[in-house]
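Lecture 7 notes. Example A: sequence first, then its structure tokens.
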Amino acid sequence: MKKTKFLKLTFIIAAFALILTACGNSSNQPGSEPVANEEVNEANEERLTVEITDAHGTVTVPVNPKNVVALDNRTFETLADWGIELAAVPKGVMSSDSPYVADESVQDIGNHREPNLEIIAAVEPELVIVGQRFASFYDDIKALVPNAAVIDLNIDVSETASTPGENLVNGLKSSTIALGQIFDKNEEANKLVAEFEQAIEEAKMAYNGKDTVMSVIVSGGDIGFSAPHTGRVWGPMYDIFGWVSSLEVDGSTSDHQGDDISVEAIAQSNPDWIFVLDRDAAVSSTTDAVPAQDVIDNSPALKNTKAVIEGQIVYAPADTYTNESIQTYLELFENIAKALAK
């Protein structure tokens, strides 16, 4: 009797063990793939997103997006400094020393005049950063990549701004903060904005409020007038720092080569300071261009101006025309403060 019970118990235990073994091996049967715990957790984990206010409204953007396309030249240096990988950029309108230009794995969509927008669709981006030169392609890009977040970090994003200077400052700050939120670089973004604000205050304090300023753009060996308030790069700074212009011209524009005002007229205004943007220095196709400093130094009309005689000339960083990042303006404002404080 006891032996029979023992045999029955042994049979039950053996059968139970076989069932457990079969269950344990079920995932390895043909047509069945093992699923790692990490993959299950990742699949069940909700993707983090952030709400970004851009030039068109509010956009939901994934945090640390994959396959990012950046088209706004105010963003390239910031993204490079943060080690952000990009899938495609417009290499023809970027600073030649940008790491993205040299990286062959980064696709080139061309310049803003004839861009190859199909490349944007081909890289299947989660995020496209539009802005400035490419702002007019916003709708086309949204149609090409309907599943991607498309943001336009244009400078004119502040409804309360009343001057070009406020637009510039507010735009650079807000776009930097937005990039920090998107790429989980909030600490770095806040530090950059704080340094930018400090540089503005130092440049304000360094200006005596009465010296006259002449801002110019040198391109193709010619000197163009960069008008107060409207002129490219320099114009907004008259608002920011309260500069007194040595010359007022009706009908001035923000033309990328400056307005066509004679060098003699510039010289007759006899500015205390001359601020210079070298457009050609930033354009890789103009390797034989005459440096702006040579153009200014060798101008017969300017040689008797107070600015030239006293060496009161400030040059924007060489890549400013193609790299209008917050870092560029930070460097420029620091250089202005140092020069004016002497």
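Example B, a different protein, same format:
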Amino acid sequence: MNMTIKAANSLVWFRHDLRVQDNQNLVAACEHAKRAGHSVRALFIATPMQWQQHDVAPIQLDFIERQLNQLAVSLAELGIPLDVYQLDSFQQIPDYLAQYTRQWQVDYVFASCEPEFNEQQRDLAVAKKVQLVLCQQHCLIAPLTVLNLSGEMYKVFTPFAKKWREVARRNAIYCAATPMPIGAPLLITDNITLDCDKVSSHAWAVGEAAALTQLRQFALTKMADYHANRDFPAIDGTSQISAYLAIGVISPRQCVAALLSHYPDALSDDQSPARSWLNEIIWREFYRHLLVAFPRLSKCQNFNPLADNIAWINNPREFKVWCDGNTGYPLVDAAMRQLNQTGWMHNRLRMVVASFLTKHLLIDWRWGERYFRQKLIDGDLAANNGGWQWSAGTGCDAQPYFRVFNPISQCEKFDPTGEFIRKYLPELESVDLKLIHKLKIPNQAELFSDRSYVYPIVEHKFARTRALKELAAMKRGAGQVARVDLDKEIFG
């Protein structure tokens, strides 16, 4: 932000950056105010109708509400009041901000860039009404700066990751300190309440201190074993900081800084124990860079246009069975029940259930992507869109359409003791593990004679054959593929 700013009051417009540590907008606003001898205000604009249109999960909205109350206390200690105002939609924000800046004699509004199309259009409209100073901090490295030799966005992750690490090595990675108080501490008298549907998020600790403790403990005790443990949902081997990243309680810069504090060679050493987790951060950046480079991704369009030829079945009854965790495949069902009960799902399981929906049931990935957004505490358009299109084979650097996860072998490989399955499928508590792992439709009545568990909705071999035929539309790229008899070998 190399720009000359005249003396004026500053406003920090908080969005998905609900923190005081490593918040470059807050730092810039405070530095400007101190130079000019003026004050700083903070603002959060709630948009319930927009949230509903964007399918923001009620559990995430509750998490945001709780974090806003923490943020208000942290800002009050710096002498900065936080105003929370509610509007229906983004369209009302430009006029509201124009009025707000006149009321409080604010000349400059500091805010973070956001990668989504609607959010970028909102900011363009706001910039016509007020002096908007945007800072890029939702990624460690700004979108449209990690490019191939032709000056274009990478469409394959591996070369993107290599270039990303090269760029990261050339730049100092340091976190901005919390600004010094701009005035006397303020008294907080009221709780912030968002007027929208919410689901309790209290299983997740709130606040920057909790998030940073989680991050640092992971870096200290689990990061080295992340590669070995990350695919096993019964093992507590992941960082579980995605919810904090999604709403900006912590920043990607803080994540990489924590990693480098324990593994300083992770950016250059391919054999570093931290490389696997670093790649997860880079995948997050990759999907966000794609969202900026290809705005159509924000509009639920296939990245691969050949996928427009897929003749999805989109059976509503089968979709509900998948949503409820009643497909008859234990790992799929346990994963969906984890999502429904907790608002979170292990990353390996996200791939398994997405593959099952799109390839076993031939239901459009957009149905599942939307359901995830409506449930996830860590809902994030870029990661959610990228992950679903990867699983469906329609996305950028996606899993090939002909790769179909076998939900039984996935169960055997990644939950070999059945610990995770039995946690979320208590009806299988007394069923022998070997029977669960050797699930076959013809023997279903014998395995579960008490009907305590459901019949599998579709047989794997049939589903795979059908998927290969239907999804080959992406290979041929012309016309619609022939439909399969929907009643053949479909159970449930």
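Note on Example B: The chain has a mean pLDDT of 91. The chain is about 45% helix and 5% strand.
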